[in-house]
Amino acid sequence: MPGRYTRDTTVHCAVITQTMLVPQWVWVDIPLFPGAATPLGPGTTLTWFSPISVTANSPAPMGGLAIAMSNLSVNGSSNISYTVNTLTGSWMGQVTDSTGAIIATQAVQGPGSFSLDFVPASTTATFSLLSTLPGGTINVAHPGYKTLIYVPGTVTRTLCDNEKDKYRFGFNGQEKDNEISGVGNFTSALDWEYSTRTGRRWNPDPKGSAGLSLYSAFSNNPIWYKDPNGDTVTFKGYDKPNKNHMSFTQANNVWNAMVSFMQHNGEANGINTLIRSTKDYEVKFIDDTDPKGPRFESDIDEDGNKIPGLKPALYINPYFAVKNPHNGYIISPIEVTGHEIEHAVGYDKDPCENFRLSNIPDPQYGTAEEKRVITGPEQRIGRNLGLLFGNMKTRDDHKGEVKHVNTWRPGNTGSDGRNEGSGGGTETPSPQKKNEVQPYTGPEIKNHSIRVQIPAKN
Predict the structure, then answer these.
(1) Tens of pLDDT along 286-314?
(2) Which CATH architecture has domain 27-144?
(3) Model-level pTM?
(4) Sequence spans of domains, the chain
(5) Any residues with CB less than 8 A from the CB of 182 and at least 6 apart, and which?
(6) Is the Cα torsion angle 177, 180, 183, 185 positive or negative in sign?
């Protein structure tokens, strides 16, 4: 999968500078001259100029004065302030909106400075000083209110994206298209549009495979396969091979064919156990110069301690067979591979028991672990693959003559095309097989670096 670059994981922002009308709070002083205030109630008199004196001689309560306010901020916090020098009687301050509804009140008791907060519902409002009893007088100075005006100014804004997922690559290394089905639910590649929720492509496969829907993806096995361009399925993970030797494509095709053969001939459980395991396994192709030959190596050392950073691995030679010297039976490369897979399965199920059996000597089979696999799973593999019949056995020990064959597929050794020998007593030759074992003439496989991985399913 492509790496995480800075442009994928950081917030994307742009700084914009523009000139516009900028809101600004200002204080408006109310001039105390005729017309700035309105007397309220019959008989109310105003004495002008700062300070203003109000005499409410109305025969009824609520005489006083009213001051209009404008350019207020709708639904914004505002206030009006004033100073009372002297007063007689009982007074109150009150703010009403443009409809006459009261939106703020306060009692005015004795001389002092007063401030009344209010939230206007429109740009205009009225402040009133009202005498609650007839005949009251009040002397007021410095009235004013806060209002909002707009002045030209320079504004700098930082605009950032609101994308919830900053990493543009998704499943199988494809690029996400979050606009179609939400974050992470849809990806695109060169030859397809892919729904990660349904595991299906939106368009027919331009290079369809027999037996599979044209809308299927990854040969219906996304754990094993990848398809970065949406046209050709390949196995996940490999190292570049050396020149003039077996290519990764060859190794990949051989491994996929071996896995498919086992899965379709009764041996799916073992390989599927490794596929579904939470452990991370490797499959490495080796050549005939490897002194250890095909094998399974765990990540546990000889003292029973886990080796940090080491992955358990299957070492496979697709042209390595073993001939039983006692009955002539050829253990084909697919059987040898199945044998090593069974060691890996035993380790996957119980690493401690696998380690214990591998360190118990056995005079006939070498170790108790080899005896377990040879006497049990190896015989089952031979029968499931159609290579053992009746009382035939692959072998009764862990010995054999190395054979180099032309194919990993089950073969034959007898001149009549039959796999000779029974290994168990009564001679029961198997039916003729399609691929007769011949001396090895295939491509060089001196590629210790060729490797395919069994991805861990977390």
Answers:
(1) 877 778 889 999 999 988 898 988 888 88
(2) Sandwich (2.60)
(3) 0.43
(4) 27-144, 171-232, 248-454
(5) none
(6) negative
